[in-house]
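Late entry, written up from scratch paper. The run itself happened at the end of the previous shift, but nothing got recorded in the book at the time, so transcribing now.
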Amino acid sequence: MPNHGAWQFWIDRGGTFTDVIGKAPDGCLHAKKVLSVNPTAYDDAALEGIRQFLGLKSTDAIPTDQIASVKMGTTVATNALLERKGTPTVLVITAGQEDHLEIGYQSRPDIFARRIIKPDLLYDHVIPAHERLLADGTVLKPLDVDRLHADLLSAASNGFTACAIVFMHAYAFPAHEQKATDIAKSLGFTQISISHEVSPLIRFVGRGDTTVADAYLSPVLRNYVSGIANEITPTLKREGHLAETAPTRLQFMTSAGGLKAAEKFEGRDAVLSGPAGGIVGMAEAAREAGFDRVIGFDMGGTSTDVSHFSGDFERTLETVVAGVRLRVPMLDIH
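Output as recorded:
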């Protein structure tokens, strides 16, 4: 790949260690490993790795004109989900369905267990939205806008800044969800995840769980991504004028094994971001070694990921991660 006289970086940000591969302008590859969390020495491990390659101190500004691209996989969202360290979230759901996501599919993985321990819910508060659309889009009950406004105002005054909006049949008829979104925006909610945008598919439970996960994880992820982006992709200036060249390209690996631009990287994309990088790397290493059937065992400091590869990447549209059902394309990893 041409690097136009600048560095390229590939970064795997794990819960314990962060690995940084740097391709120098002369084409040589270099590797570094730094602690993911070391607040007495530096603010961020990925940025510290880049600074070390460029011969900078931990407090020095990064010269963005020396960086062509940064591609990154991160377990920030994965670990936030596993450790339940996301953003307090309020669920706005069609009235009468307040406990629908908690009930789920009533699956019993261990059918003879005498004591059932259910995973913790990702939302902290439920607001019933008094509305109802039928499966053909007929309005059975118009959205009670005033009542929802009052309930969301109360939630906002109690400190909630993230909300997930999940209405019956909204995947096909989103008008009521759009009205609810306008109300939440007017009240200052900074994270609003809407089911018809997050997971526009039939099946209420999977769509609802994915939307809640997106609201719960996106603020945590956004804070991290913004911290990286602000350091390596500011507007470039030369001789007092805006540079004509584009800023450093920052991309993140998604759960499906592809790359997304930083500004489009959301919580729903990131749950298996780090583990997906392990699968892609395993497959490429196996191909170079002459193998097309391999088993992957990726043991990190927080979680261990198991997979297999038999010539093609295996993807799934619905999976369970840390007790949470997700309906987004992702590599099939356990």
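The longest helix spans residues 204-232.
(Scratch paper discarded after transcription.)
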